[in-house]
Design a protein that fits this description.
mainly beta; 7-stranded mixed beta sheet; 4-stranded antiparallel beta sheet; 11 strands; 0% helix; globular
């Protein structure tokens, strides 16, 4: 198993930036493909970005449009999400998740990840 703890959320003005972190503990970090997801009040959870086990391949939701960057540091067992040019509609709880068994260099584009963190709130004011 893997345990995931997110941090880095907060309140920012529109146009600002946040950097979310997700620290993993437990099983070997490179065994997991990782992803960032979000859920706004009254809305379904959606995929934001995913990254392969190697860190060499990523995939983003269309609404990201070059504003967000997912990365991982396999030496620190941590995955990051850099959020730039934030908009009020980016307000949500952001979750990281891990999926075991993915191929080495392929990000997983699915909501069906096995392990989830508790989430971190990001609020963007207009």
């Amino acid at each position: 198993q893997v345990q995931l703890v997110e941090s880095g959320g907060g309140l920012v003005q529109a146009g600002g930036s946040l950097r979310l972190s997700c620290a993993a503990s437990g099983r070997t970090f490179t065994s997991y493909a990782m992803g960032w997801f979000r859920q706004a009040p009254g809305k379904e959870r959606e995929i934001v970005a995913t990254i392969s086990r190697s860190g060499g391949s990523t995939r983003y939701a269309d609404f990201v449009k070059g504003r967000f960057t997912i990365s991982r540091d396999n030496t620190k067992n941590t995955v990051y999400l850099q959020l730039n040019t934030l908009k009020p509609e980016d307000t949500a709880v952001y979750y990281c998740a891990a999926e075991l068994g993915a191929t080495w260099d392929r990000p997983l584009w699915t909501l069906d990840y096995d392990y989830w963190g508790q989430g971190t709130q990001a609020t963007v004011s207009s």
